[in-house]
């Protein structure tokens, strides 16, 4: 998929995206040209020179239905929510979702009879996304279209959209300032700065490049692991995956295997990047029986400011007793790959997990770094809370 946009004295953006990428994140500082890029792709910029090859319908890209949802939802105010959906169904594409599926996926079934003037900003954004899906786009552009939606609901909608990229073949391009969201769901990430593409490629590679430039004092890592067959109840006891009626509210904490280590992650912190896994985790949270299998992949975000490090003088196995003396349950053996100075007397540690190619960051004081005599190549134990 190749896209290029040129607006004299404003932007000159060219991207080349793998045809297998369904969810494409677009990030960058304010005023970088992200919105102008999207507006150009849908023909809303008069002076833009645009070349597109969506690689979805070869030879007929001009016939593709492309939908866009702006940060301001732009709903029709002369009718209610149901009326907006009815208008979207007038000329639907082949990829159109049913009203029921869109309502459920965008968490707005309870809004269907409301007047547009009665909707909050977040509610209006949810309705606008549902309306776009009812119209059946093959390409969906979301320009900060979830910015006013609370995090829990936003997570559900992102998981729904991610699922549609698999089940309906939708290409979803999303502009957001929330790198945590983009890091979890993006198959491909584009970082735009000063009207040009600074970085593009795999999400982890782009984020590493961005953070290396110190664009963010407390970057977030996204770790991926496998759900284990047992969960942890409020009293800290392990339960089999067949929960009893006494735990009808579902598990509060999941056990996740990451890089040969076992971590404890609260249900609220877990993310999945496909609708099937999401449904399984939701069932485990909300019902009296846990339906997931240990093969379910999950992700979770770890912020650098929440990570501390210990010097690892012996092997991980020999450090078990030391690890168990801390109230911080989660610990991962890591290798420091880079140390960068930050402002306000802090340093940012770039680390790679042992037994894995995943990355982890830690923002610590310069005093601590000097006291521990930290240097690249050193083995450390990274600790963090996810409860």
SSE topology:
Blueprint lengths: L1 E6 L3 E6 L6 E5 L6 H8 L7 E5 L12 E4 L11 H8 L10 H7 L15 H15 L3 E5 L7 H17 L3 E5 L3 H7 L2 E6 L2 E6 L1 H10 L7 E13 L5 E2 L13 E6 L2 E6 L8 H12 L10 E7 L4 E4 L8 H4 L6 E12 L4 E8 L5 E7 H6 L7 E6 L3
Parallel strand pairs: 3-7, 3-8, 5-6, 6-7
Antiparallel strand pairs: 1-2, 1-4, 8-9, 10-11, 10-12, 10-14, 12-13, 15-19, 16-17, 16-19, 17-18
Notes on the structure:
The protein is of the alpha+beta class and 387 residues long. Helices cover 24% and strands 31% of the residues. It has helices at 34-41, 81-88, 99-105, 121-135, 151-167, 179-185, 203-212, 275-286, 320-323, 366-371, and strands at residues 2-7, 11-16, 23-27, 49-53, 66-69, 139-143, 171-175, 188-193, 196-201, 220-232, 238-239, 253-258, 261-266, 297-303, 308-311, 330-341, 346-353, 359-365, 379-384. The longest helix has 17 residues, at 151-167. The protein is globular and about 70 Å long. The two termini are 40 Å apart.
For the structure shown, list the relevant keywords.
single chain; 387 residues; alpha+beta; six-stranded mixed beta sheet; five-stranded antiparallel beta sheet; 10 helices; 19 strands; globular
């Amino acid at each position: 998929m190749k896209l290029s946009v040129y607006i004299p004295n404003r932007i000159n953006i060219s991207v080349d995206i793998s045809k297998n990428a369904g969810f494409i994140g677009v990030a960058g500082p304010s005023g970088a040209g992200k919105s102008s890029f999207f507006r150009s792709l849908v023909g809303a910029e008069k002076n833009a020179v645009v070349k597109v090859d969506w690689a979805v319908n070869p030879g007929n890209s001009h016939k593709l239905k492309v939908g866009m949802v702006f940060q301001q939802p732009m709903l029709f105010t002369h009718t209610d929510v149901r009326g907006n959906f009815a208008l979207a169904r007038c000329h639907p594409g082949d990829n159109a979702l049913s009203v029921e599926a869109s309502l459920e996926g965008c968490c707005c079934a309870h809004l269907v009879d409301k007047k547009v003037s009665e909707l909050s900003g977040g509610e209006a954004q949810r309705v606008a996304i549902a309306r776009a899906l009812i119209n059946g786009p093959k390409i969906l552009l979301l320009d900060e279209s979830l910015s006013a939606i609370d995090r829990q609901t936003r997570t559900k909608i992102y998981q729904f959209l991610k699922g549609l990229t698999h089940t309906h073949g939708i290409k979803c391009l999303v502009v957001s300032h929330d790198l945590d969201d983009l890091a979890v769901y993006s198959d491909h990430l584009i970082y735009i700065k000063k009207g040009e593409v600074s970085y593009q490629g795999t999400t982890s590679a782009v984020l590493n490049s961005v953070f290396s430039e110190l664009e963010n004092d407390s970057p977030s890592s996204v770790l991926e692991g496998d759900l284990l067959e047992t969960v942890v109840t409020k009293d800290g006891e392990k339960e089999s995956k067949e929960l009893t009626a006494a735990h009808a509210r579902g598990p509060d904490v999941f056990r996740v295997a990451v890089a040969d280590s076992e971590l404890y992650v609260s249900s609220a912190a877990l993310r999945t990047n496909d609708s099937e896994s999401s449904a399984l985790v939701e069932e485990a949270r909300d019902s009296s029986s846990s339906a997931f299998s240990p093969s379910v992949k999950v992700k979770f975000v770890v912020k650098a400011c929440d990570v501390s490090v210990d010097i690892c003088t012996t092997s991980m196995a020999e450090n078990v007793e030391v690890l168990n003396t801390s109230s911080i349950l989660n610990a991962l053996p890591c290798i420091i790959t880079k140390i960068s100075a930050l402002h306000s007397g802090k340093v940012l540690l770039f680390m790679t997990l042992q037994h894995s190619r995943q990355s982890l960051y830690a923002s610590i004081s310069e005093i601590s770094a000097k006291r521990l005599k930290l240097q690249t190549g050193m083995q450390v134990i990274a600790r963090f809370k996810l409860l």
